[in-house]
Amino acid sequence: MMKIDPLKLRQVSVFQNATDEDLKLIAGHGIERSIEEGEFFFFQGDPADYLYVLISGRAKLMQNNPAGQQVNLRTISEWQMFGALGAVREGASYPASAQALENSTALAIRSDYLHELMQTRPYLSFDLMKLMTGYIQEMQERYRELATEKVERRIARSLLRLAAQMGTKSEGGIELTFTRQDLAEMSGTTLYTVSRILSDWERQGLVEAGRERVLIRNPHGVVSIAEELHE
Amino acid sequence: MMKIDPLKLRQVSVFQNATDEDLKLIAGHGIERSIEEGEFFFFQGDPADYLYVLISGRAKLMQNNPAGQQVNLRTISEWQMFGALGAVREGASYPASAQALENSTALAIRSDYLHELMQTRPYLSFDLMKLMTGYIQEMQERYRELATEKVERRIARSLLRLAAQMGTKSEGGIELTFTRQDLAEMSGTTLYTVSRILSDWERQGLVEAGRERVLIRNPHGVVSIAEELHE
DNA sequence: CGAACAATTGATCCTCATCAAACCTTGTGG
DNA sequence: CCACAAGGTTTGATGAGGATCAATTGTTCG
Fold first, then answer.
1. Rounded distance, CA B175 to CA A164, Å?
2. Measured between CB atoms, does A31 come within 8 Å of chain B?
3. Which of these, A98, A82, A112, lies nearest to A35 by C-alpha position?
4. Residue B62 and residue A28: Cα distance in Å, rounded?
5. Which nucleotide has the least CA–C1' distance to A150?
6. pLDDT > 90: what percent of chain A?
7. Which of helix, strand or coil describes residue A17?
8. Cα separations (Å) of A6 from A13, A105, A108, A147?
9. pLDDT tens digits, B14-26
10. How confident is the model at residue B150 (pLDDT cuts 50, 70, 90)?
């Protein structure tokens, strides 16, 4: 196990204002955990004793209902923090599960340790709060979308959110990697509907679809589906 | 305009750990705003210069999409804080609108003033964070519900949430006050569907419905609709 | 009493979920 | 290197769950 460079933690939005010493402290107290594709960092309902910073790989946060159906809350890419709720509410349990989408490594930090740090470092609470307000806003928006918009538009939005978060620009467009099922869980629909709509878009030349892969050929066109009042 | 008793602010969850002096400071810097039923404290998109504490009345936080359809994010009752986002992100605008459901009074506090207070009073950031994690969890749950559960169950949940938040116990059950439209916006459906389902429940003796009013006769029965795997 | 607003109920339609079957792609092991 | 297995994807057929529209019936209040 190779220790990560503490200063790299500055890329984590919550740590952007931390001193070098703090970063070293945090890195020093962290434990690296590597897991394979498909495995879980934690499950919904587990006691939230650790929070994580993804160092390499990709993961998703998801929630499932009693019947087992699931929804994707967000996708986690490198240097993003997840599972931070425990640092604020002691004794809480994770409200969602975190599953690796590829072989991944994360730095696990004890929730109570960060909790303790926050007592004397106001900037930490503050930056964590900024992150949280962002999540609240995003969830509120997605909630509204789900309640009021039709599927096609929701899929377009999910696609754009993904593109902004983890798309890689190649010639020809923006490249994304995920299954129809993933996209369905992000948009609150089924993989069948996603497949049909992507096929549609492909016929219109908006995207190019493949196995676990979508190339957005015409981002502007997708945006217009996502935003337009559209008749 | 009568000034409120500063010590009453202790009922606000974010202020629960504040000193008496702090409460006086906060109350002293606040402005009381009274508005009538149907009016707005603020609109989605306005600059978030103030945060509010509802002193009397009832209000709702709602968001609307470009086409004008709206969803209810939450209902606000006395001594709850709302519009607090601006204290964290400077220059932000409200992501939702706040409308009074009855004639209401709120204490308006400048966002940057609370922002300043938080710099030197860690407990404030901390308690605000607790509030936020609560919202995040609630929104995540509601999002999942909307994505995976059927209408009837969602309506049952909304009803129970309302009951917990603002129901008044009377003999015969729990009394609630709102329109079908309100409940529809809370559950992500239409007033027609809410009406039909309430009628159903009334036939089964679960509730008693009236104009802008529902009496939950058999809370347990409603819970079983909300929770049960139900065939 | 009448106007305004809330609620009910029926009829109809449309969007999507669901089910089923076949197809494609990728990786594995003989 | 081919064959096969496993998992992802596509597409069609069908149907259910609600949205929408329209008309009527309460209810409240000035």
1. 46
2. no
3. A98
4. 44
5. C15
6. 83
7. coil
8. 14, 15, 13, 43
9. 999 999 999 999 9
10. very high
Answer for the pair A207, A174: CB distance below 8 angstroms, yes or no. Answer: no
DSSP string, B155-213: HHHHHHHHHHHH-EEETTEEEE---HHHHHHHHTS-HHHHHHHHHHHHHTTSEEEETTE
Asked if A97 and A59 count as a contact pair (C-beta separation under 8 A), the reply is: no
What is the bridge-based pairing of β-strands B173-176 and B168-170? Answer: antiparallel
What Å value separates CA B36 and C1' C2?
Answer: 26
Closest Cα of chain B to A172: distance in Å? 31
**Mutate which: A61, A65, A97, vs B, most B CBs within 10 A:** A65
Which backbone phi and psi does B116 adopt, to 5 degrees? -65, -45
The reply to whether the predicted model has a pTM over 0.85 is yes
d(CA B177, CA B184): 14
The residue in chain A having the minimum alpha-carbon distance to the alpha carbon of residue B64 is A144
Q: List residue ranges whose Cβ is under 7 angstroms from nucleic strand D.
A: A 179-181, 191-192, 195-196, 198-199, 209, 211-213; B 150-152, 188-190, 192-193, 210-211
